Amino acid sequence: MKARNILFTMALLGIAIVTSNAQNSFGFRIGTNTSSVPVNLDFANGNFLKNQTGVSVAFIGEFGITDQLFFQPEIALTPKGFKIKEGISVEGIPLGIENVTKVQYLDVPLLAKYQFGTGKIKTYVTAGPVLSYALSGRNITRAKVFIDIPLNNSKLNLDNIGYERFEIAGTVGAGVVLDSGSGKLFADARFTRGFKDIYNIPIVDVPLKNQSMAVNVGYMFSF
């Protein structure tokens, strides 16, 4: 309920900003999202769970409050997850197995953006909450003997395993923007950390939270 209240409040703020006289922009971004679930399992020396990288895409709105301060809501499809990857070498032959958990999220970042500079090239920082919902998941297992050998690629029933679909996170980022034609090109990097446990590893009783680092490029059209 608290998350719904936050979303409603931010939506009202967005409506108020849209009706202001400041310049508004709309556009898109695409980038890589490297996600992890940072835990330190003693029996695995902290290396049991590996990072998982995928492609994220988003539609973006940018609504000016002042010449430097903006409200930037987004609707994004973001892959998250982790790998379990172990291997050995037998007489010089690499042997291993990799299990990948991929979860596709619908993310709604609600960002405050502050821009520095007045020239054609500017820098900016962003920060704000991210409301997320896990849409679907897949479990992929591969054996590794010189090449990847697929063993399993199946849909992951998130509800049956007790996966928490709704997530609240916080994100911070920084980037650079270049005026270009009727709009602007931009590139940024972001760090996002979930506040809610999404899953609890059975037997060892270790709760997991999402964490990710993203690098994006995009374009926004000014109106």
Model description:
The chain has 223 residues and is mainly beta. It has one domain: Porin (Beta Barrel), CATH 2.40.160. Helix content is 8%, strand content 69%. The strands form two sheets. It has an eight-stranded antiparallel barrel. It has a two-stranded antiparallel sheet with strand order 10-11. Strand 3 and strand 4 form a beta hairpin. The longest helix is centred in the first third of the chain and has 17 residues. The two termini are 35 Å apart. About 2% of the residues have low confidence.
Topology of helices and strands:
Layout: H1 2-18, E1 24-36, E2 49-50, E3 52-64, E4 69-90, E5 93-116, E6 121-145, E7 147-156, E8 166-180, E9 183-194, E10 199-201, E11 206-208, E12 211-222
Key terms:
223 residues, mainly beta, Porin, eight-stranded antiparallel beta barrel, two-stranded antiparallel ribbon, 1 helix, 12 strands, elongated
* Rg from alpha-carbon coordinates: 20 Å
Q: What is the CATH architecture annotation?
A: Beta Barrel
Number of helices: 1
In one word, what is the shape? elongated
* Oligomer designation: single chain
